[in-house]
């Protein structure tokens, strides 16, 4: 099986490369990335999967290079995206170009290819600000540039239905250690500040909820999609729904001297709760894990602990 990962040098992509590299049924992994994040960590310090992996420096809007890259590919993981938290409502043009029209270009190329399966990482953010917990049956109501561009990308993916097996994964907020991790994601940022500054800043009242999933669970589920016969469709993938204050309480168990400060205390923030019992978990169950244990393990990945 020959696999292509767009955005394969990113946070999720890096760990997915390592995970897929351990599967005997995967013969080759092509990483397609423009390295716009300036992140080169995929390319250093880990050689176990190198015989299977090759890299193509390319833009998701480069239709000619996409068509060439897809030759001989069986499965595509489409991860390439513009993701910047918490600035999802600034610079709408770049979200449209990368997330929306970049996915459109990939879709056009796939229509002319022999690819058998496409797995697209969307976001639970397409549901917008909600009062009640959402499921796959909930109506998307995106409310910022990022989530709007993701929903528009989904519509392009759905054009392939009946031609290529398509699976859309609406993913919760990812956290946890990776060499290519993002520190703009809330739990990762809190961990950095708690470890090195011993103080975290909470924007708003802290009661707003979000859905979260650990990076290891994310890549394990994505890898198992190659070996599990599930129907084409759209699935949520989320593990824990937590408020900001829930996260802070757990972090204070991990870092006993941690201080927390509130800013913009009149700001309630958007709320999004996602039901854990997704249709996807009927095929690929998630193991139960404890957030405090995960964060204690995360803490061991920092290279030093300042006195």
TrEMBL record:
InterPro entries: Epimerase_deHydtase, NAD(P)-bd_dom_sf. This is UDP-glucose 4-epimerase. It comes from Parafilimonas terrae. Residues 3-237 form the NAD-dependent epimerase/dehydratase domain. It comes from the Bacteria. Belongs to the NAD(P)-dependent epimerase/dehydratase family.
């Amino acid at each position: 099986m020959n696999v292509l990962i767009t955005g394969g040098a990113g946070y999720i992509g890096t760990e997915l490369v390592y995970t897929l590299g351990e599967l005997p049924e995967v013969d080759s992994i092509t990483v397609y990335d423009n390295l716009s994040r300036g992140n080169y960590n995929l390319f250093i310090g880990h050689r176990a999967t190198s015989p299977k992996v090759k890299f193509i420096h390319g833009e998701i809007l480069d239709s000619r290079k996409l068509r060439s890259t897809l030759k001989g590919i069986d499965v595509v993981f489409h991860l390439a995206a513009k993701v910047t938290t918490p600035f999802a409502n600034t610079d709408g043009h770049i979200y449209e170009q990368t997330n929306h029209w970049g996915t459109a270009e990939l879709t056009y190329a796939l229509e002319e290819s022999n690819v058998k399966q496409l797995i697209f990482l969307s976001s639970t953010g397409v549901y917008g600000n909600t009062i009640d917990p959402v499921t796959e049956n909930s109506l998307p109501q995106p409310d910022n540039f990022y989530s709007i561009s993701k929903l528009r990308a989904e519509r392009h993916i759905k054009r392939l239905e009946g031609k290529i097996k398509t699976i859309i994964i609406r993913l919760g907020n990812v956290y946890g250690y990776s060499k290519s991790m993002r520190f703009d994601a809330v739990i990762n940022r809190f961990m950095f500040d708690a470890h090195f500054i011993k103080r975290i800043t909470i924007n708003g009242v802290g009661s707003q909820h979000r859905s979260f999933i650990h990076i290891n669970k994310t890549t394990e589920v994505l890898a198992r999609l190659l070996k599990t016969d599930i129907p084409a469709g759209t699935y949520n993938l989320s593990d824990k729904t937590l408020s900001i204050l829930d996260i802070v309480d757990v972090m204070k168990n991990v870092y006993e001297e941690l201080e927390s400060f509130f800013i913009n205390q009149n700001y309630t923030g958007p709320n999004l709760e996602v039901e854990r019992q997704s249709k996807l978990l009927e095929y690929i169950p998630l193991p139960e894990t404890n957030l405090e244990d995960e964060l204690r393990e995360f803490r061991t990945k920092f290279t030093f602990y300042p006195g």
